[in-house]
Amino acid sequence: MNTTQNNDLAARDAHYLWHPYTQHKTAAPHIAIQRGEGALLWDDKGKQYIDAIASWWVNPFGHSNKFIADAIYKQLTTLEHVLFGGFTHEPAIQVAEKLKEILPSNQQKFFFSDNGSTAVEIALKVALQYYYNKGKKRTKIIAFENAFHGDTFAAMAASGISFFTEAFSGSLIEVTRIPVPVAGQEEASLDALKELTKTNDYAAFIFEPLVQGAAGMVMYAPEALDTLISTCKDNNIFTVADEVMTGFGKSGKNFACDYLTAQPDMMCLSKALTGGTIPMAITTFTQELFDGFYDDDVNKALFHGHTFTANPTGCAAALASIQLLQQPEMQANIQRINQQHLAFQAKIAQHPRIKTTRVLGVIFALELKTESKESYYGGLRNKLYNYFIDKGVILRPVGNIIYILPPYIISDELLSEIYETIASAIEEVH
Predict the structure, then answer these.
(1) Pairing relation of β-strands 363-368 and 401-404?
(2) Is 271 annotated as a binding residue?
(3) From its phi and psi, is residue 399 left (phi > 0), alpha (psi between -120 and 50) or beta?
(4) CB 215 within 8 A of CB 148
(5) Do residues 278 and 258 lie in contact, with contact meaning Cβ atoms separated by under 8 Å?
(6) Residue 85, annotated ligand binder?
């Protein structure tokens, strides 16, 4: 019965659905997930999977989290949605008040949208329009090489993974990329930025603070980023911290920017914002940026909006998620996972097939040695992915890079199973 149901679901999926980042001509049938609990998922054959990447980094508190579900239910029975143009509601105000308590102190204004890409889109539009409102022409953006900021047009332009964006290269805003200040490249990164500041062309510098997620969890030091942010401030270039992936505890602190001395002008938040329940994003701003739109001239307003802006149900989920994040037990879980990652790193780092390993907070990554550069969705990556799925572990390698980013509530036993599966893959998959 279960097998028949699975075949039916797979056939129905193939008949109707278009999945993200998928070449459907060559892709395997999609696995039908029926339910989840904690760090585990089950498909409709009854097979169990460990969600070792928190379902694309959105689900830190576990699947079917009752605390968040209860908050959503309570909100649904009071006010499920109301338009945010001309109206407001307490859940949105509470989210802003709660974020104000935990974000860098210069973040004063909060603009809601739907996902990480739209959060970035809004930040870049604000940077460009700010100077337009001032009668100045700053039409370009600075970003890191190999960045990923999303799939809407401005977010694509700021991203540096070419095969995601090359079909649209003639339709994007102008972005200049500088080297990522990884160890040994700090000076080259700073020099490249300083060269760009000699003009008055650039409105903003956008970055993934301390960890480039889609590039393969590439990590760099906060001191290097502090220097880049300070240089931008000295030259009136706004800074945008894309914390869509790193936000809400992933780095070991509430936000990766908490490791910095300098403060960004804007921050982009999504993914774990609602604990993996309801799509929602927020872009945060300094008072200076808001004031650049505050005018008697209506044309200087920010004409951007979404139908579900500040959806009350999503706000309720966000409030519950932030409350969970702040619990001492959850903070202890983050530190526990970090210690487990460090222990695994110490055990495996010297393996002859491993080129590098890195850990920050709940993020672990290792890079396998390859004879040639492994493509993003290359043969080795696909073999590894299929091996992990066969073993009941959801991991999505990036080329030759395997990373773990688990829910914070994962047990030590399940973490050990993930580590053991990766260790066996290193021996068996070539």
Answers:
(1) antiparallel
(2) yes
(3) left
(4) yes
(5) no
(6) no
Non-local (6+) Cβ contacts of 275 within 8 A are 58, 59, 60, 61, 65, 68, 317, 318, 320, 321, 324
**Domain boundaries along the sequence of the chain:** 31-64+328-428, 68-325
CA distances from 77 to 94, 267, 303, 313, 381 (A): 18, 32, 32, 10, 45
Q: What is the CATH number of domain 68-325?
A: 3.40.640.10
Q: Is 18 annotated as a binding residue?
A: no
User: pLDDT at position 377, please?
Assistant: 72
* pTM, 2 dp: 0.96
C-alpha count within 13 angstroms, C-beta hemisphere, residue 98 = 22
Question: In this predicted model, what pLDDT tens digit does every residue of 267-279 receive, in sequence order?
Answer: 999 999 999 999 9
- State yes or no: 305 annotated in a binding site: yes
Q: Which of 371, 392, 377, 387 is nearest to 425 (CA)?
A: 387
Q: Does domain 31-64+328-428 have CATH number 3.90.1150.10?
A: yes
**pLDDT tens digits, one per residue of 196-228:** 999 999 999 999 999 999 999 999 999 999 999
Is 117 a known ligand-binding residue?
yes
Q: What's the average model confidence in pLDDT over 324-342?
A: 98
**Residue 173: helix, strand or coil by DSSP?**
coil
